[in-house]
Amino acid sequence: MRVALAGLATSHPYTDARTLARHAELVVWEQDPERLRRFTEEHPGAKVAGSLGEALATGPDGVVLTVPNPQVPEALARVLETGVPCFVNKPAVATRAQLDALDRLAIHERVLSTSVLRFAPAFAGTLVDPGDVLAVRATVRHDVGLWAGGYNAWQDTPGEGGGTMVTMGIHGVELLVALLGPDVRLVGAAGARRHYQGLRSEDTGVIALRWGSGVVGTVEILGVSRDESYGVTLHGRDGSSAIVIESGDDPVRQLGYEGTIDAFLSMVRGAPSPVPWGETRAILEVLVRARESA
């Protein structure tokens, strides 16, 4: 099996590669020499491609796509031409123009884009009856202080990577849509810089949602945090229940990275994406509207 890692724009493909290396020959393409050097030091056996076209020409059985958000639609279009399964690391897009460009693509059933938390053992397989739910809340704790010093400035730029509202907000929106479905709309969103004044976006935020069933929900985004954790609280008539996702002593497994790659490898073997594109599209619409609103 051969897998192409097309882009190393965030930390995620480095983590993905550690799992993929146990199953496949790796091909890597990255525009930034320093990022590429870091990768090849860890994976000296990986074949290095000089361009996306060269990476795709090696005949991969699947592609993990991780380029800056503005480049995703064009890069994904080229991957789609090959017909091979593709995992697009989150979030696939961050702005209205990017989403419109994505909507023009013929996305097939073996394209997956998701927050890895959907596949975290503490969450995966959780089922709820919306009729039993009054309201839901997702809390995202993930420090964004690294951006305040200028690291990966495109991610922190609202018009490029969406900033904290999109890049961290996706984790909460993804979990809630996984539980309650894609019939959801944005009610409102707000963000603020409470601690990291050097940011281009925000370090705290809130997203308010409403499902067609009448359930209302909120996503709290806390980008100033000593520890990384994620939670979902379900409020019902008889009380509340909570799901907590933490890194523990095996973050690759506990945060869902391993489960996500397992899902991708199932796609390589012929299975459809476990997350229908219509559901992903609903999540992206909420995030784009939240960015516009905030």
UniProtKB/TrEMBL annotation:
Q: Which domain of life is it from?
A: Bacteria
Gene3D superfamilies associated with the record: Dihydrodipicolinate Reductase, domain 2, NAD(P)-binding Rossmann-like Domain
Q: Which residues form the GFO/IDH/MocA-like oxidoreductase domain?
A: 131-240
Cross-referenced InterPro entries, in alphabetical order? Gfo/Idh/MocA_oxidrdct_glycsds, GFO_IDH_MocA-like_dom, NAD(P)-bd_dom_sf
Protein name (database record): GFO/IDH/MocA-like oxidoreductase domain-containing protein
Q: Which organism is it from?
A: Nonomuraea antimicrobica
